[in-house]
Specification:
By secondary structure, the protein is an alpha+beta fold. The protein has helices at 4-9, 22-32, 83-102, 161-165, 171-190, 194-204; strands at residues 12-15, 40-44, 50-51, 57-58, 65-72, 110-113, 117-120, 123-132, 138-145, 211-215, 221-229, 235-239, 255-258, 262-265. Helices cover 27% and strands 28% of the residues. It binds biotin. Residues 21-23, 47, 50-53, 56, 58, 67-69, 117, 127-129, 141-143 line the site of biotin (BTN).
C-alpha cells in the first residue's frame, strides 16, 4: 500500500501485506539490524495473530484495521518508561481527533482509558501494546479499528472510525495523523519538557477523576476514584469501599497504586 504522508514522517516505513504481529516483525528487524533507526514503522492491514495487553489476543478481520509498530529509541532521561505507553494513548487520541475534525464528523468524546485504550463515547477504537527490548528501546504497537461494520466489531463495547465518520477511513491519513502526534510528544519527552507531557496525558485521560474498578493481575479487585498518576505513570486509586481480594482478606482502605491491570469505568 502507498502511504506517502506516513512515510515522510517515519525514519523508515515497512508495509507488509500480511503478518502475524507487527510487534514481532519489528522485533525481528531489530534483531537482524541492531542499528535500525529510531522511529522505524512496520504497518499492515492484515494482522493474523495480533497480541494485546495482559497476554490477550487482538483480533482483526483482514483489511479492516490498521496495525502498526513504532521503534522508540530516544526518550526522556527524566521520565520513567511507564509514561511512554501513556504518551502513545494521547497520540492516538489526538490523531483520531484530527481525522474526525477533517471529516466534519460530529465530535465524539474521545479519551484515553488508563493506561492507553482509546475510547470514543466509552467504546474502544484503539488498543496499544508497548514492549521493551533488551537494549532498552521500546516497540509501541498500535491497533486502530478502521472500517469494521457493527457486526464485525470484536466486542459490544468497541467501535470503528467508519462508524464514527460514516465514510471509508483512509489509512495514510489516519496513520500519518497518529505518527505526527506521537513524534511531537516524543520530541517533547526527549527534550524533557515534563509539564507538557504530564499536562497532555492528564488532559486526554478519560479515567482520572472518575469511579473505577481495577482488576489486578493477581485477581484482586480495587474500587474507588482514580485520583492521579504516580511519578512512574501508574494509576493511583483512592478506595472508598473495602476491596475484594482474591484471598478474601479485606485490605486497608486508602490509596492503591495500580501499575498494571484492567480498569473498568463505573460512571
Ligand atoms: C490491547 O488492547 O490489549 C492492545 C492491543 C494492541 C494491538 C496492536 S496491533 C499492532 C501491534 N501488534 C500486535 O501484535 N499488537 C499490537
Amino acid at each position: 500500500m502507498h502511504l506517502p504522508r506516513s512515510a515522510s514522517l517515519a525514519a523508515e516505513l515497512v508495509w507488509l501485506d500480511e503478518i502475524a504481529s507487527t510487534n514481532d516483525a519489528l522485533r525481528e528487524l531489530v534483531l537482524a539490524n541492531p542499528a535500525l533507526a529510531d522511529r522505524t514503522v512496520v504497518v499492515t492491514d492484515n494482522q493474523t495473530s495480533g497480541r494485546g495487553r495482559l497476554g490477550r489476543e487482538w483480533v482483526a478481520p483482514p483489511g479492516k484495521t490498521l496495525a502498526f509498530s513504532v521503534l522508540v529509541r530516544s526518550f526522556s532521561t527524566e521520565l520513567s518508561a511507564g509514561w511512554l505507553p501513556l504518551i502513545a494513548g494521547s497520540a492516538v487520541r489526538r490523531g483520531l481527533a484530527t481525522v474526525l475534525h477533517a471529516r466534519d464528523a460530529s465530535t465524539p468524546n474521545l479519551g484515553v482509558k488508563w493506561p492507553n485504550d482509546v475510547l470514543s463515547d466509552g467504546k474502544k477504537i484503539s488498543g496499544i501494546l508497548s514492549e521493551m527490548l533488551p537494549d532498552g528501546s521500546v516497540i509501541v504497537g498500535i491497533g486502530i479499528n478502521m472500517s469494521l461494520r457493527e457486526e464485525e466489531l470484536p466486542t459490544a463495547t468497541s467501535t470503528s472510525l467508519a462508524l464514527l465518520t460514516d465514510t471509508t477511513p483512509n489509512p495514510d491519513e489516519t496513520l500519518s495523523a497518529v505518527l505526527f502526534e506521537l513524534f511531537t510528544l516524543l520530541d517533547a519527552a526527549t527534550n524533557n519538557e515534563l509539564s507538557t507531557i504530564r499536562d497532555t496525558v492528564v488532559t486526554d485521560s478519560a479515567t482520572l477523576g472518575t469511579e473505577v474498578r481495577a482488576l489486578m493481575p493477581n485477581g484482586d479487585v480495587i474500587q474507588g476514584r482514580a485520583v492521579r498518576l504516580a511519578p512512574d505513570g501508574a494509576l493511583v486509586i483512592e478506595q472508598q469501599t473495602s476491596p475484594l481480594t482474591a484471598s478474601n482478606n479485606p485490605s486497608e482502605l486508602g490509596e492503591v497504586v495500580v501499575a498494571a491491570g484492567d480498569i473498568e469505568h463505573l460512571r
